[in-house]
Write a structure and sequence with these properties.
The chain has helices at 2-23, 27-30, 47-65, 94-98, 100-104, 108-118, 168-188, 217-229, 231-238, and strands at 34-41, 72-78, 84-91, 129-137, 157-164, 192-201, 207-214, 250-258. The chain is α+β, with helices and mostly antiparallel strands. It has two domains: 2-137, Alpha-Beta Plaits, CATH 3.30.70.100; 148-258, Alpha-Beta Plaits (2-Layer Sandwich), CATH 3.30.70. Strand 2 (72-78) and strand 3 (84-91) form a beta hairpin.
């Protein structure tokens, strides 16, 4: 009980800061959807099955009761430091997303279902570490759009791409580039974008992250070839507004496979 009270108090302090920051947002930012992205680093062995049960039986139902969703849960198929599981939680309110763990610490239904992971002993942890980031949807793509295959649990994979910029100015310019025609080029090239987000809190900032959906790797490769050959892309990427220097200094490119419990 003392451990639970201590956790709730610690989370409350963090949530208070997030709430003040959220209240200071401009009306345009408050109108956009926000995203919490979690990365659970796992050890090879039973941790993955245990975490999947936690997501399916405890976390996703609990955050859905809070009004968040649809929630994505994905296994890292291609990328560094596997095994790992990614969770994408959309919500309307940044402060509520930042305070999810505070709310969970006071949710008895969640705590009962989550106990094997929530209270895992140090001798047998349920995961190695978990990292969170908080994003605001782009103004030009203000809400998440799941692929049609998500409703029927059809075949699909996801690409999660993060663009780091060498300066704050370059980051703002890259975001502007998306709003100056890059969205349309994605759509004309046959992509299904899921979300575009500007990182508010996270590592390796300034950066942005977006997600695309495909049927399989063959479609992923084919659509990127179409994108690269698109004359509109060649024109946009050569535009002096965006080509004055390397406005993206590093790209992280992950391929994710949805877990059975994923709503995306």
């Amino acid at each position: 009980m003392e451990r639970r009270r201590f956790l709730a108090a610690s989370l409350a302090a963090s949530a208070a800061v997030a709430t003040r920051n959220a209240e200071a947002q401009t009306p345009a930012l408050r109108a956009r959807e926000h995203y919490q992205i979690r990365r659970y680093a796992l050890a090879t062995g039973p941790q993955q099955k245990q975490l999947e049960s936690f997501l399916a039986d405890a976390l996703i139902p609990a955050v859905s009761r809070m009004g968040c969703g649809p929630v994505g849960a994905f296994n890292l198929s291609i990328g560094p430091e596997t095994p790992a599981v990614y969770v994408l939680i959309p919500g309307k309110d940044a402060a509520a997303l930042a305070a999810i763990d505070l709310s969970l610490a006071n949710d008895d239904e969640f705590l009962k279902a989550a106990d094997p992971v929530w209270s895992a002993p140090a001798t047998s942890p349920a995961f190695q570490r978990v990292e969170y980031s908080l994003l605001a949807a782009f103004e030009g793509w203000p809400s998440l759009t799941p692929p049609a295959a998500a409703a029927s649990k059809g075949k699909r994979i996801f690409q999660l791409r993060t663009y780091e910029s060498p300066s704050y100015k370059d980051h703002v310019v890259k975001v502007k580039m998306f709003h100056s025609g890059e969205f349309d080029i994605f759509l004309k090239s046959g992509f299904h974008p899921v979300f575009f987000g500007d990182t508010l809190i996270g590592s390796r900032m300034p950066n942005l992250t977006y997600m695309l959906s495909f049927t399989d790797m063959n479609e992923l490769d084919a659509q990127w070839n179409v994108f690269r050959d698109n004359p509109d892309w060649k024109k946009l990427s050569a535009d002096a507004r965006f080509a004055f220097e390397a406005i993206v200094s590093n790209i992280t490119n992950l391929v994710l496979s949805p877990l059975a419990c994923s709503q995306i």
